[in-house]
């Protein structure tokens, strides 16, 4: 199966057993360097600045959009994005050129999508791709904006200090009803009437974005996601899993932390085990609804190479 065909069948896939893969990798002496402890000498701030610059350069280098691949499986993984109330608000964090934003906007014509990235270049590409896709009323439903969510946090127009405070009081007017269609406008209207901000969001999507953030800054980044969600809102997570084929391809000198690697262009990638992902979200205050490995076997048509892909699928709720 080619990589693109594999992508269409990624939904909760279990082509192989992750535990068997783990044993195989951990017993292979040639891969032993992936398991060694690592002490990072760089200060946190330096990590973050370098990481942002690397992503900005990456998007300038790849501005042709060759890397654009619509994540068609996304609505199967996260059906709440279709069944949610009309006017529900989604925040797609690290939207890149819109691979996740586009299927969400296409799959639910009543959804409002805020999409941020730390690169203005890629935000422009995302706007172009989505505008060219003939999705209904996209000019009113897509709100792209620049933001480094891990360092400076989300802008106040998403959720002002007052609303963030209200979310922690679980005011009835702030509650998200992500699970059901709403028949009449209640909560979002009353928030908007205050005209302080958009009143927070019902969903945050973190799709292959958290792994791009330095491990040290992940707790702050997740707390920020928590703070803009309405009580009851969902954080939808998908990212690289431990012992994914792409992790095993990194050389030992590309390690920049434990299970953390840097590509030759300076962008980073972290590979999550279930416990690390779970602990990060629970420490920020979330309740775990789902977390599992998604294991997909595919064969590269060009060279016949067999590839075992591992992703972590997670769903977390703000109490
Ligand atoms: C692998 S891409 C994922 C894109 C998209 N979510 C998708 O589903 O394809 C990671 C994106 O996160 C962005 N990013 C990395 N660090 C960020 C940060 N601190 N704040 C905002 N965006 C960031 C990068 O510019 C990049 O576009």
Explain what you see:
This protein has helices spanning 3-8, 18-26, 44-61, 74-77, 80-83, 101-107, 120-131, 138-141, 161-169, 187-193, 218-228, 245-248, 274-283; strands at residues 89-93, 112-117, 142-146, 201-207, 229-240, 255-257, 260-262, 268-270, 287-299, 306-317. The chain is globular and about 60 Å long. The longest helix is centred in the first third of the chain and has 18 residues, at 44-61. It starts with a helix and ends with a strand. Helices cover 33% and strands 22% of the residues. The protein is an alpha/beta fold and 319 residues long. Residues 1-5 and 183-189 have low confidence and may be disordered. A hairpin with a 2-residue loop joins strand 6 and strand 7 (260-262). The strands form two sheets. Strands 3-2-1-4-5-10-9 form a seven-stranded mixed sheet, with helices on both faces. A three-stranded antiparallel sheet has the order 6-7-8, with no helix packed on it. It has a single domain, classed as Vaccinia Virus protein VP39 (Rossmann fold). Residues 52, 55, 71, 94-96, 99-100, 116-119, 122, 147-150, 207-209, 212-213 line the site of S-adenosylmethionine (SAM). Its EC number is 2.1.1.-. One of its GO terms (molecular function) is RNA methyltransferase activity.
């Amino acid at each position: 199966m080619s990589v693109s065909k594999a992508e269409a069948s990624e939904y909760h896939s279990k082509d192989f057993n992750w535990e068997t893969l783990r044993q195989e990798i951990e017993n292979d002496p040639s891969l032993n360097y992936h398991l060694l402890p690592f002490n990072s000498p760089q200060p946190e701030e330096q990590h973050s600045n370098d990481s942002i610059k690397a992503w900005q350069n990456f998007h300038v280098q790849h501005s042709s959009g060759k890397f654009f691949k619509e994540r068609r499986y996304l609505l199967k993984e996260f059906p709440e994005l279709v069944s949610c109330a009309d006017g529900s608000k989604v925040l797609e964090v690290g939207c890149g050129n819109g691979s996740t934003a586009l299927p969400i906007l296409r799959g639910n014509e009543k959804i409002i999508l805020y999409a941020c990235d730390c690169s203005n270049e890629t935000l422009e590409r995302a706007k172009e791709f989505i505008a060219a896709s003939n999705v209904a009323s996209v000019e009113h439903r897509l709100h792209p904006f620049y933001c480094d969510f891990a360092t400076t946090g989300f802008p106040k127009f998403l959720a002002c200090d007052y609303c963030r405070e209200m979310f922690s009081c679980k005011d009835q007017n702030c509650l998200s009803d992500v699970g059901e269609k709403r028949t009449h406008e209640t909560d979002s209207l009353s928030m908007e009437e205050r005209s302080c901000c958009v009143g927070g969001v019902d969903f945050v999507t973190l799709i292959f974005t958290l792994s791009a953030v330095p491990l040290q800054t992940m707790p702050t980044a997740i707390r920020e996601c928590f703070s803009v969600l309405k009580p009851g809102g969902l954080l939808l997570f998908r990212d690289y899993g431990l012992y994914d084929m792409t992790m095993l391809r990194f050389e030992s000198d590309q390690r920049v932390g434990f299970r953390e690697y840097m590509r030759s262009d300076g962008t980073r990638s972290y590979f999550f085990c279930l416990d690390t992902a779970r602990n990060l979200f629970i420490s920020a205050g979330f309740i775990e609804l789902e977390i599992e490995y998604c294991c997909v076997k595919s064969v590269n048509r060009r060279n016949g190479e067999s590839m075992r892909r591992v992703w972590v699928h997670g769903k977390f709720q703000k109490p």
